[in-house]
Amino acid sequence: MKIAENIKYIQNNIAETLSKMGRKDEVTLVAVTKTHPVEVIEIALQLGIEHIGENKVQEARRKIPMLKVPYQGFHFIGHLQSNKINQLLELKPCLIQSIHSLDLAQKLHLALGRTNRSQDILIQINSSSELSKSGFSFEEVKEAIWQIAAYPTLHIKGLMTIGMLAEAEVSRPLFAKMKYLFEEIKELTIPNVEMKYLSMGMSNDYVQALEEGSNMLRIGTGIFGERSYGANE
Ligand SMILES: *Cc1c(COP(=O)(O)O)cnc(C)c1O
To answer: Which ligand 1 atom is at minimum distance from the Cα of 34?
Structure first.
């Protein structure tokens, strides 16, 4: 099975890179399962994948409740529209990685308050400043984190970014800047903020991301092969 080989290959690469960097910390691998059917996701779970990521609420609602193989958590990694917040919360995501605006944070807080729940989140940063991507800018993110940290239902657990899709080395300075910001925010010791996860690195640039300090990778194509949009979306 190709998926088994792919997972092994990626895990070896992760281990080698960590050892080369002299790192002993843990890296979380999130298998990005968007467009892939439940049966394929279950194969990955049976092979030891513990975290899965989806980027669309509709698709997640259709697939997540069908999964029969146990795993640790479902991560939401896509652009979250405020009218889908309640549907997403029903799926009990372990981490919403893509908090991209103060407005979204406030609406999520209100929705959680109504059901007496709390939620772990990451703050998404538009590190490449591309208009097609959502997230806070480097300039505005610290102030935003202070504001979001004031919502008792939201627990900030770190930062997330998407690199430049074009070429991995182009993303390296962005990843380095993210790591610097991550450490800076850690030192601010803001109440209700724990800088635990630095989520960056995808199929094409996860080695560069790891070298620059990522500890959470989101990998789809590298595990499942190319996505075909259509049938399973
Ligand atoms: C699709 C997606 C990924 C995975 O991309 P691959 O290149 O297939 O590894 C990671 N993060 C986000 C936010 C995505 O939408």
So the answer is: 1
